[in-house]
# Entry
Amino acid sequence: MPENSQNSSVLVVGATGFLGMEICRQLVNAGKKAKALVRPSSDPAKVNALHQLGVEISEGDLKYPASIKKAMDGVGSVISTASSTFSRQEGDSIESVDNNGQLNLVQTAKDARVDQFIFISFYPMPGDFPLQTAKRNVEKKLLESKMNYTILQPAVFMEVWLSPAVGFDFPYSKATIYGEGKNKLSWISLKDVAMIAVASVDNKAARNSVFQLGGPEALSPLEVVRIFENHVGNEFTLEHVPIAALRAQKTSATDSLSESFAGLMLAYAEGDNIDMKETRKVYPFRLTSVTDFVQQVPVEQAI
Ligand SMILES: NC(=O)c1ccc[n+]([C@@H]2O[C@H](COP(=O)([O-])OP(=O)(O)OC[C@H]3O[C@@H](n4cnc5c(N)ncnc54)[C@H](OP(=O)(O)O)[C@@H]3O)[C@@H](O)[C@H]2O)c1
# Structure
């Protein structure tokens, strides 16, 4: 059994993703032995970047339990960020990866007598949709697994939800807002989520705990737009997607991914209510605010 010690590795599942790569970077900076689960189909440039960081590479696919057994050798902790929502290969879906694949991973880690499992979930959102069902199923299995678990339930990532990929097109001073944009969200930087995940490794205070994670200040999307406008020096053109349209999108969705995206946009429209008071006692770091984040965006592109 790999004891949780300086000699055991931390296996990052989802290491070629935005959050997983940042976790690997921070693990290495913290002097921890990091191992990455990558797939034969993963982007070679990302696998090479992990290799350059000094991360050990192990191949496997969550859909095939036999393929991930070997990766558990010498592992004391697993951190799983994997998801099929943005990075998909043939056969990947919310059911096969986010649900069954993650359940396979929990079982494989348990069989390998891994000491700690850190799972990146998200905060309990309003409404039922397949990605939320998958996250809760994995959390439940972890709670029953008898492994030490740390379940991290972040709010929306600034790097994703304040990016052109979801219509927050700050380089062109345009933003799509889901709903009226008046309900507050606890925007968090994925760098801070990575910092908290890394700080959870071998941390007794993080054992067998569930933490909702938000940033230092909850702000409505319209308040965030004002911060960007002040920084960029341009007024934004806003396009609102009404809640009724999001509901219709969810009801008429023909696959679990589209239904889940509609569910996520509805949750954004409704806002969240994350209280970090107790969590801050375990992770007392300075967290990135939206005002800090806006300093990092390439405003020279703004027109
Ligand atoms: N975006 C948000 O606002 C937000 C908020 C709260 C929580 N989260 C959660 O944060 C997590 C990380 O998000 P992210 O943006 O870093 O995701 P991402 O960039 O899309 O990365 C997904 C990772 O999962 C891997 N993966 C997918 N299918 C796999 C499979 N079958 N077997 C093994 N690996 C597989 C991908 O590997 P390949 O490169 O091989 O495809 C990739 O490394 C997700 O679980 C998400 O639900 C996100």
About this structure: Residues 14-20, 39, 41-43, 61-63, 81-84, 86-87, 92, 97, 101, 120, 122, 154, 156-157, 160-161 surround NAP (CB under 6 Å). The two ends are 57 Å apart (CA to CA). Residues 94-111 form the longest helix (18 residues).
